[in-house]
Amino acid sequence: MISWFVNLIGLPPDCAGEREGEMTDELLVVRAQLGERAALAELVTRWRVPVWTYVRRMLDAERADDVTQEIWLAVVRGLPRLREPGRFAPWLFTIARRSVNDRLRGEYARAREDLTADDVLTEDPVEAMVDRAELVNALSGLPVPEREILVLFYLEDLSVEDCARICQVPVGTVKSRLNRARRMLREHLQERGHRS
Amino acid sequence: MTEEEPRLSARETIERLAPALSTGMRVRAVTALLAGLSGAVFVVALWSSEPGPLPGRTHLAFTLLTVFCLAWAGYGGWLLRNRVPLFAAEQVIAAWIALAASTSVTTLMTIVAVQRGTGPGLVLATGALFVAAASVLAVRAHARRAALLRRVRDLTGRKEEA
């Protein structure tokens, strides 16, 4: 489902799926909670680029590094209290989203909300060979709610349920935002002369 | 379009987290909390066991000392809550330090109370409260660490089986 998007964006394969021969995130989190600094360092190393990618897609380059660092600080401070180590990724992106939202508060307030809760997730309409730079440009042109859901779902490979939890909206809203985001993305690309 | 990447390397990112992971800061936070609490108990015990009516300035001095100790305890608690939360192994150590501090202060205060002839009842009751609280923290810290270690074994075992 996500391969087309990951290929387009050019993420390394290990950002998009299970990693074989490595400690699972849960094992790393539990070891970090026990106090192993090496496990914490490995977690940071593993999730550094995905977190930064999410932040960068939501904010400009100047703010992305600062906000990413803030996120890691909040992660380190919150990690001893994380009760579900197996759900590290949604927890991490909840923190990331909160930090990004702090910077985007004004932009969020202007975002228009006209969502239908019972929209269904349709097949991807933007399945085409597209220049990666075009797609990144198109992403940055989307409104914040649509952009963040697209990044979380496709770039970070999170489930609809996890996206809903992170964004604190119902699952139906996530689906409708995804539909709308893809439609907007398609329109944007079509305007620029690409075929969907 | 050139490939965009974080400006900070993994190593730099981790290095910038050093203050939040600092052992020294954790020691300072636990010390501030325990010293503040112990000091407050010590001062209040002395204050309440002073023989005869005290002049106003002495009351003021005891009040200020108590507030000073409580402020340090509050600062230590705030650090541990918001700035340098303890990981499981550190929680075990901190709980044992708390237990040792509670026992020492209770013993010391009991000796002082007996020497002053004010009776050790109140001091022992207060001390028992602190010792009990520290004991609960120690038990919880051990249980939490044991649960995490079990989880590590489960996950490691599962991985080896796979």
Automatic annotation (TrEMBL), chain B:
Keywords: Membrane, Transmembrane, Transmembrane helix. The chain crosses the membrane at residues 29-48, 60-80, 92-115, 121-143. It comes from Streptosporangium longisporum. This is Transmembrane transport protein. It comes from the Bacteria.
